[in-house]
Specification:
Layout (H helix, E strand, L loop, with lengths): L11 E8 L8 H11 L6 E7 L16 E8 L2 H10 L9 H21 L3 H10 L16 H9 L1 H4 L3 H19 L6 E6 L4 H13 L2 E6 L3 H9 L12 H4 L4 H17 L5 E4 L2 H8 L8 E3 L6 H21 L5 E6 L8 H13 L5 E6 L6 H13 L6 E5 L3 H4 L5 E4 L8 H9 L3 E4 L4 H5 L3 E2 L5 E2 L3 E4 L4 H13 L1 H18 L2 H15 L21 H14 L45 H16 L19 H4 L4
Length: 642
């Protein structure tokens, strides 16, 4: 078991920045991070973990490896920081009313520069002057309580569309959250790797700026889209465009929070030297939210196939038995999800109702995942199961050791409204289990896109995709699959082959190692020796792309590479990176490649479709696709998205 520190923070190679996940909550992103750390024992790691307050879970659920040296917990709650914030006053600000008014105008102008010009530098300048403990000349936080600041706000009042009182309280929330995540002397790492936009991304960008090192961003899912859709009670399967906060019919308070989340991404994206996505479609959606695609690469999740080999053999025997016997007396389905609204568990229950009503009754569905995250929703699901008389067919089992029981199941069902590239789907595929799931996130890439195995043979689908919210289709397609045993057997076999072709964890983790070494400015990234005289960073994204493609072409077949703190490269931290400067890590091959957008026609068409989706729900999308008015409260908005 790791003896990581919670109070002493040594220099590390990589600092992972997480929101309410690893190592204190189970989930797909936590599992990926644990794999990254475990499969890179030659690197040292620190963890910055944001959560709401000290009552949040803080038990190590992963027995984190010894190469994790520390975990720093950052609390977001205003009440947690109230004593420090209220202790500050005018003495901490530039002296004089005129100076405070100038500072207020500069802050509002800096926020406008992000919104109107995509320029984060004025706000970063204020961070250096009034926040960064190593460079600040004053404390910017008490500015909120000054007459000069409120006078400046009143002058721009009309643009905010809310009462002065409401405006103050929203700004108070923004100030307190910004204080919670930024007012730190961050431990030093060569690379800060945020696993989402939002608060984690702001922390990663600020820590890299403060230490003169480097910021890497991974978007497992589109945090901005998901957070905004949840905030306004909108269909979670729908895309989001950057300008939507300006045009949606929402309350002034909701619009303020939509602006906060959306422009936070625009603020952080330029600081990232590289942005990784799990599947190509995510890059297109992120571009519509301000992400620079010239710095984007696709790095999928990975599966430890050797670990799954015994399970795959068990499933091969069971599948052969199913085919020989002409089916199952009782088909066993599973859904491996948290019991929360975004996972569509109520839709799954409705699909079970449709199955029974159609005369298909020889099945069970076990839903495996935490039940405590949204207790009211869990209770609603349990009540619905009883109400529909489905207690013999649907069970909510709570958290279980999925890998220990997965061989007992014949089909994985996924009714989610939103996913990235689900680890549980890859686990089912590695075991040889077909999937019926909603076409969200990277599900099409995993289950249905054309792949080729290592011998060049084309691989077909290994599952069925349906529209999110269409529980009728989920019921019908599940019944069709188990009644077509030839297709069932073909999907079961192809599932494993698709993972073997594109999602082997050893391949993926080597690429993460290469990325860390490259972004961290190590001269020998994963065995790559740069030609003599070649600079580590070129002046343009295109130059970096050419450099790294050539470097990987010339790389020797050597898996060994020294740790980032081994003394290679410069010991002195380089100067903070300019907004347009980037270090692209580009490797030939489909798994890790520079993102190449489709031609303009396809992209314009995709954006047109996305815009239309805002105007009306898709015909088969289920819940209303239009933004709806949610309760006017900031409590949920302040909490980290889970």
């Amino acid at each position: 078991m790791s003896s990581y520190s919670r109070t002493e923070f040594c220099d590390v190679d990589v600092c992972i920045v997480m929101e309410s996940t690893y190592p204190y909550l189970k989930g797909g992103v936590s599992a990926v991070v644990h794999d990254i750390i475990t499969f890179n024992p030659d690197l040292t790691f620190g963890i910055i973990h944001t959560t709401w307050d000290p009552s949040s879970p803080q038990e190590d659920l992963y027995d984190v490896p010894d190469n994790v040296k520390w975990v720093k917990v950052i609390y977001l709650s205003f009440n947690h920081h109230r004593p420090e914030l209220t202790a500050m006053g005018l003495r901490d600000l530039p002296s004089g009313s005129r100076a405070r008014r100038r500072l207020a105008e500069r802050l509002l102008d800096a926020l406008a520069a992000i919104q109107q010009q995509d320029d984060p530098e004025p706000l970063w300048t204020l961070y250096d002057e009034g926040v960064n403990p190593r460079t600040r000349q004053y404390r910017i936080w008490p500015l909120l309580g000054t007459r000069e600041f409120m006078d400046a706000v009143v002058d721009r009042w009309d643009a905010l569309g809310m009462t002065l009182s409401d405006c103050f309280w929203v700004l108070r929330d923004f100030f307190s959250l910004a204080y919670a995540i930024l007012d730190h002397d961050f431990p030093r790492a060569r690379v800060y790797h945020a696993h989402t936009t939002g608060y984690a991304s702001v922390i990663g960008a600020a820590a890299a700026r403060q230490n003169g090192t480097h910021f890497l961003l991974t978007e497992h899912n589109l945090y901005i889209r998901d957070t905004v859709n949840e905030l306004i009670d909108r269909n979670m399967a729908l895309p989001l465009l950057r300008e939507d906060y300006k045009i949606f019919d929402v309350t002034a308070r909701q619009r303020a929070w939509m602006t906060w989340w959306t422009e936070m991404g625009v603020f952080c994206y330029p600081s990232a030297e590289l942005i990784t996505y799990l599947y190509p479609l995510a890059v297109e959606e992120a571009k519509a939210l301000g992400s620079p695609t010239e710095r984007a690469i696709v790095v999928p999740n990975g599966m430890p196939l050797a670990e799954f080999e015994p399970r795959r053999r068990i499933r091969q025997e069971k599948t052969a038995e199913i085919l020989a016997q002409g089916g199952r007396d009782v088909w066993r389905f599973c859904s491996i999800v948290r019991i929360v609204p975004i996972k569509g568990v109520l839709d799954l229950i409705e699909a079970a109702r449709v199955m029974v009503a159609s005369g298909f009754t020889n099945f069970t569905i076990d839903v495996m995942g935490p039940k405590e995250h949204v207790p009211a929703y869990t209770q609603k699901c349990e009540d619905r199961i009883v109400e529909l008389g489905l207690t013999d067919h649907v069970r909510l089992l709570g958290t279980v050791n999925v890998r220990a029981v997965i061989t007992e199941y014949d089909v994985l069902l996924m009714a989610s409204y939103n996913e990235g590239q689900p680890i549980v789907v890859l686990e089912a595929m590695a075991t040889g289990i077909p999937t019926v799931g909603t076409e969200v996130g990277g599900m099409r890439q995993v289950l249905d896109d054309v792949f080729y195995d290592r011998d060049g043979n084309e691989l077909g689908a290994c599952g069925v995709l349906i529209d999110a919210g269409n529980y009728q289709a989920m019921a019908e397609e599940t019944i069709k699959l188990v009644n077509d045993l030839d297709r069932y057997g073909r999907y079961a076999e192809t599932a494993y082959r698709r993972v073997d072709a594109k999602f082997r964890i050893e391949d993926i983790m080597k690429r993460y190692n290469s990325i860390y070494r490259t972004v961290g400015r190590v001269d020998d990234p994963a065995g790559v020796v740069l030609p003599a005289g070649r600079a580590a960073v070129q002046s343009t994204p295109e130059a970096n792309a050419d450099m790294w493609i050539q470097a990987f072409d010339e790389a020797p077949a050597d898996d060994g590479a020294p740790a980032l703190d081994s003394g290679q490269g410069t010991d002195q931290a380089p100067a903070p990176k300019a907004p347009g400067e980037t270090s692209a890590v580009l490797q030939e091959g489909a798994d890790v490649a520079p993102y190449a957008p489709s031609d303009g026609t396809e992209h314009d068409e995709a954006l047109t479709v996305a815009r239309r989706a805002h105007a009306r729900p898709r015909e088969r999308s289920g819940p209303d696709g239009e933004p709806r008015r949610a309760a006017e409260t900031t409590t949920t908005s302040q909490r980290p998205h889970r």
